[in-house]
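Input record (Table S2, row 864):
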Amino acid sequence: MTEPILEVEGLVKYFPVKIPAAQRLVVRQPLVVHAVEGVSFSLKPGEIFGVVGESGCGKTTLGRTILRLVEPSDGRIVFDGVDITHMKESELRPIRRSMQIIFQDPHAALNPAMTIGESIADPLLIHELATEPEAKVRALEIMTEVGLSPAEQLYTKYPADVSGGQKQRAVIARAMILRPKLIVADEPVAMLDMSIRAKILELMLELKEKYGLTYIFITHDLATAKFICDRIAIMYLGRIVEVGDSSEIYREPKHPYTQALLGAIPVPDPDRPRMKTLPKGEVPDAIRPPAGCRFHPRCPVSTAACGWEPADFLDLLDLRALDDGVRVRDEEALGSGDRFTTQGGASRIRALDPGMTAREKRSLLVLTALGSLAVGLLNALAGVGTFGLGILVILVFDLIARRESVRTDLVDRGTHGDTLRIRALDPGMTAREKRSLLALSVLGALAIGTLQAVMGVGTFAAGVLVIVVFDAIARRESVRTGLVNRATSRVRTYVAGILDAAPQPLAGAVKRITISGSEVLVEFAPSTDPGLRKVDDRDVRCVLY
Amino acid sequence: MSDTVLEARNLRVLYRTKRGPVHAVDGVSFDLRAGETLGVVGETGSGKSTLGKAVLGILPPGTTKEGELLFERKNLLTLPDGQLRRLRGKEIALIFQDPMTRLDPLMTIEDHFLETIRAHESVSAEEARERTRAALASMGIPESRLKNYPHEFSGGMRQRIMIAMGVVMRPKLLVADEPTTSLDVIVEGQILEILEDLKRAYGMSLLLITHNLGIVAEVCDTVGVMYAGLFVEYGPVRDVFKRPIHPYTRGLLASIIHLDSSELVSIDGLPPDLVTPPAGCRFHPRCPYVQDVCRTTAPEWVEYRPGHFALCHFGRDFL
Ligand SMILES: Nc1ncnc2c1ncn2[C@@H]1O[C@H](COP(=O)(O)OP(=O)(O)O)[C@@H](O)[C@H]1O
Ligand SMILES: Nc1ncnc2c1ncn2[C@@H]1O[C@H](COP(=O)(O)OP(=O)(O)O)[C@@H](O)[C@H]1O
Ligand code: SF4
Ligand code: SF4
Ligand SMILES: [Mg+2]
Ligand SMILES: [Mg+2]
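Output record (iron/sulfur cluster complex):
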């Protein structure tokens, strides 16, 4: 048996999601994009391995992680017998020559300021494998080989001056010039017109034969993959759902997602009637991928065991709301969206607010706040008043003291003669007396102010207390009078009705509907990923097998 | 026989550029009947979008337009701007490949609709809101999302929103320029189904621009194969696919990589520069059947079968 050229084991790539600082307080656990999650496969030399799936399923990330252009979050990559998962960039450098990538957009892949020839020769210079003249010779050779001829003439052209097909040939030539063993081709023909796609694919096949290359061929186009791949892996939301011999998979696709993808391809034959049962909706967000089988919300043949969860129940309600009549009935019976929460494997629906309603509480709180504000304001005024009073007292006392000084001849006794003005005495209070009195009135005002502030807070606290007490009483009463019971059982019955009318698998996955306090809990059976299992000649991730 | 909604007679569009006029559409004729779908296929740069823009009257200023383009017998090429603007959005609507370029990122989806509706009809805010809700619900978008902004939707949802906006005025003609090109096959299928349903429900005609022949086969009644600014073949989809006449059509059909393809086929060479298109038959530099006459004399537009036209000197030999 030949040694595999590449082995990938349990490869995982999570991208952290950047959350604004303000939201970080609310969102507790860090969010990640589940771009690639537990991908394993191995490649024989000379194989063309297709990675197929809709955009966003993680194909590019997988390809780039294998080449260590993206750091893996977990798993192992063994290239040509060497574990490169954690290799330092300096150790990796010589190995990089053997692993090249061809990008989807040839225009973006070429430096617009370099001629086609310079771009192709560049890797030789970067890796210090040739002098400039040698590199040029090698570039011209490879250009002829990839069909860029006359090579001499095209060597000096800039990317903007050649066609899309020629640009992609140049990108291929640049990857080939280092004589790689493995090439990751990321949608190499997706941006080219139909009439030239075939030419590029043929070129890739020729080069493979000639140099014994191994390809990872990434594409969203199952028809192209069928044409050139020996084996293919179908990916959905970061996971491989089916992998095996290409011809077998096309002959008999087993995974419902593979079947859907194949069935959706438009057939250029007007006599073939359009008979499609397309999966519902679109690929869900990779930040919160569905539980269990990730395809379950869209799968046309899903079963109760496929991973139904609270989010699906909420989606069902959203779907029902598309019909006007149903929406009104649902809202009457279940209330608006803010009554729903999910926790663990259950959807929680608050059947009623047994105490005061949130709105009542809110208005009372506002009232209390306003009240204590008003009191506070009044008191602030009183504080200012106290201070004013203090000053007044000082002024009056001072005046009286002045008068007394005159009346009792104190002033006369203190002055003799008019020519020279010497203030013989302070007729009123002494400055020191005034200062102490002033300090006294400030202190007084402050003391009174503090007292009143405390009173304001007290008023507020009293208000809150009233709310809490009333709420508790209302709660008791709601329970005593059976209000809670009636509301919860009404909601429970309604939810049961919704589930009866719901698609079987979802309804079947609901373990029970229970009541907890004033909430109705729709509990789902715990869900697990079906796992990739051997089915005949391939591996499939589906509970049906 | 149903009425013709859109009729092109020798339609020409020339862009002014520094390098000289670009013959982007150079004498195209077709009829699109009520409730039918005309597919326009061709490679990048063949003039498909230009044709669509001509119908919408949204070509850049200074562009030369010749021939006739009749919408319900009014020539769109000579219609005063005011009237054209009134038609646009109400009688003729457009959807694009990338809805994001047409949606204002700072406006909620609801506001987009209200603006569209009230630009064409004076209805109460209540009624406009009701119509918006209904239009979006018919596309599977719940009311709870009316206040969301365009970037909060997936690509497929955005395209549905565009379609819902395009048809909210119940236009007679919808021009869809590569409406599914940036979408994956499953969502593409969903969008095509929506378009089919709308056509059936409102008897709308559809001008569907695409480079995907599979889509044409599945949803179009007639098809125009465009090459270098010309329809080189035009006719009922079945005829064109099953009994193609023009060598380019044959090449294009053979080059599709589909699940039943048994070999890789391509058309040699590249489409021509439309500033200096080749003399004679424009396809002659790439045509495997080229003869001397093809290099000098432009072929005639001949109806080889009822409604099935082609532009080739040797059309008869390929019947
Ligand atoms: N650098 C990145 N940072 C954050 N998320 C990323 C990054 N690159 C890709 N993603 C996300 O990872 C998922 C897989 O993306 P990608 O590998 O590009 O898929 P595909 O190539 O199949 O279209 C997507 O949800 C994408 O938005
Ligand atoms: N605004 C424009 N000014 C000048 N040339 C244009 C303009 N728009 C398109 N063209 C040219 O017209 C030709 C047809 O373009 P287009 O109608 O966009 O083709 P398609 O939609 O089939 O790709 C191309 O050669 C293109 O470069
Ligand atoms: S496990 Fe299989 S049947 Fe169940 S949802 Fe997934 S693909 Fe469908
Ligand atoms: S006219 Fe001549 S060159 Fe043009 S398509 Fe016909 S055979 Fe080919
Ligand atoms: Mg990608
Ligand atoms: Mg276009």
